[in-house]
Amino acid sequence: MRCSPSSMLNLLRTGRLRSCSRRGRSRLPLWLRKIWLYLKLLVRSLCFNSLTDSDVVFDSIFEPVFWTVDYVTRWFGLVFVCLVVILTSSIVLIAYIVLLPLVLNTYSPPWIAWHICYGHWNLIMIAFHYYKAAKTSPGYPPTEKNDRPFVSVCKKCIMPKPARTHHCGICNRCILKMDHHCPWLNNCVGHLNHRYFFSFCLFMTLGCVYCSISGRNLFLDAYNALERFKHLDLEKPGIPVTGMGPLIGLLPSGQTNFQTAAPPYTFKDRMIHKSIIYMWVLTSTVGVALGALTVWHAVLISKGETSIERHMNKKERQRLAAWGKVYRNPFHYGKLNNWKIFFGVEKNSHWVTRVLLPSGHPPHGDGLTWDIFPVRKDLIPV
């Protein structure tokens, strides 16, 4: 039996129609197909071009984790700010209620003047810089059309990004000269409030170290006093008298226990010693942790970098080292010049009026354009 070409063609058409009808009956729901296509697109996006590396894959995989952290940090920022205010206020109350009377009664007049002057100066610097760091805008690039130069376009804002500008996922906008998002400020640290943030860390560290060193002897005395109180509490309040005791007149008539004397301390004494221990432990712990952070930021400022630029410059140095080249940070103007620009020091008196005293002067430059390449002369002559 011979098969003609027309019969073979009809057979193929019939089989194709049947397979299509089966495929139509087994199709997934539209919403499920959309999810499947979206997941397939995410997987394919991991190798979208030759520039894909481990960082791109890591960011894509952990994007839900990053989003969750950003969301939680955004909503708990106010809680962190309240925690800073409550802890700092508790130390201040202990200093005024417990420590100040001790200082006035035991120290000599020169030491009293020193503690009162330094303590109040440090407290004013901490309060001023924390308020300014939390309430000052970090600086945002302009959203309207302008002729300012830019180095890239933000993938999330779809807006031009000037040099040293980065997108903050928590604030959900680009920040000029962004360093990081600080949950303890509930604000980003950028071009306009970077100086306030560093000054707050510096003076808070100095205040914690001051309380820890000056209160060390008070802490030891309070700890030893609580240990004595604990041993006194373990003693029995009375000793039963039996046998011949009542007959020979050891106790008044009708009394069967020999009562010991009242404890040589009060509830107020116990609370004073506990508050001193609380103050010393808190200030010592915060002083060590915040001191390490302050030193880290001081190193970055000396090199003309932010926290983000530190990681970017490290990768760039490694990339150029593979080509036998040396990378130089274009925003590093020398250690002294970096500090002058950071604090806004334009003359010698500014080291006192703008660094050691509260000052709300604006930072150097507008944060949109920067002088690049290191220079040997002072950008701000002093």
Summarize the structure in short.
This protein has 382 residues and is mainly alpha-helical.
Describe the structure.
This protein has 382 residues and is mainly α. The relative contact order is 0.08. The chain has a domain at 90-137 and 190-234 and 266-356. The chain has 11 helices and 8 strands. Helices cover 59% and strands 6% of the residues. Residues 21-25 and 241-248 have low confidence and may be disordered. The strands form 4 sheets. Strands 1-2 form a two-stranded antiparallel sheet. A two-stranded antiparallel sheet has the order 3-4. A two-stranded antiparallel sheet has the order 5-6.
Mean pLDDT across every amino acid position: 83
How far apart lie the N and C ends? 107 Å
Assign the structural class, choosing from mainly alpha, mainly beta, alpha/beta, alpha+beta, or little secondary structure: mainly alpha
| Unreliable residue runs | 21-25, 241-248
Estimate the strand proportion: 5-15%
Strand order of the largest sheet: 1-2
Q: What characteristic shape results from the CA principal axes?
A: globular
How many strands? 8
Give the radius of gyration. Answer: 35 Å
The arrangement of helices and strands along the chain is HHHHHEEEEEEHHEEHHHH
The major beta sheet can be summarized as:
2 strands, antiparallel
- Total helix count? 11
Helix content: 55-70%
Question: What does the secondary structure layout of this molecule look like, with pairings?
Answer:
Blueprint: H1 5-25, H2 30-45, H3 54-61, H4 63-106, H5 109-135, E1 152-153, E2 160-161, E3 166-168, E4 173-175, E5 180-182, E6 187-189, H6 194-214, H7 216-234, E7 238-240, E8 257-259, H8 267-302, H9 307-322, H10 335-343, H11 350-356
